[in-house]
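REQUEST
  id: r-88c1
  op: predict_structure
  target: ABC transporter ATP-binding protein
  payload:
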Amino acid sequence: MSFPSPASSALTAPVVETEGLVRSFGGRTVLDGISLRIERGELFGLLGPSGSGKTTLIKLITGIDRADTGTVLLLGERMPKLSMLQRFGYMAQADALYGELTARENLQFFASLYGLSGIRRSERIQAVMAVVDLLDHLNKPVSAYSGGMKRRLSLAIALLHEPELLVLDEPTVGIDPVLRQSIWKELLALRDNGTTILLTTHVMDEAEKCDRIGLIRDGCLTAVDTPEALKTRSGAQSLEEAFITLGGGERA
Ligand SMILES: Nc1ncnc2c1ncn2[C@@H]1O[C@H](COP(=O)(O)OP(=O)(O)OP(=O)(O)O)[C@@H](O)[C@H]1O
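RESPONSE
  id: r-88c1
  status: 200
  body:
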């Protein structure tokens, strides 16, 4: 019998593995025992109504917050762990940008946190700003950006260091349909090149593009599967209908 070497088992291990995550605020349980595996190279969507616990789960997975009980393994490492920050790209729901600095200065700041410098840094800044179509606005102060431009800059920052895992909390909110389409094209291309992507959404047509979806409601994962399998399982024509059937209500 042969056993996988540590290196090969690291490659086959899930990128995200949570077990029994519980998180409460002021005596109210917001996440109620979430166990989830996301495999390498997957584009995984967390779909749920406002307040269902998506952001809270993302914060536990990225180590920004700590669970009351349960465990998170990210790329095989027990979270929270500060050194893991370099291994994933994170786009929060609220843009964490410095308004008084230009977009270029913001990118340079985050590049230095990720250990990027010199020509590589300039190349990456050009490449990610091209993806989000902001090259013409590199030298503008972020305070002069619109809401949608700030979302796009936040996405560019998450992509800077070419992380093996991208965690995106509602990445396309406030972004117009044309650019949204081009961002999705880029996300699918990144996935095809092996990047694992975990994102949250309440938009059904975005959820349809994911390899697998986790339906979340009132802090519980009610179903995890491919969009097609979720529809088949619930006898639904659309994902929206499947969500209502499998999610256990009509609030979504
Ligand atoms: N720090 C906190 N203190 C108290 N309550 C919180 C805190 N963070 C989240 N909550 C509550 O937990 C619940 C889940 O919030 P969360 O932000 O995870 O939902 P969500 O599914 O991401 O919603 P949305 O789609 O609107 O972003 C909400 O009722 C929210 O008010």
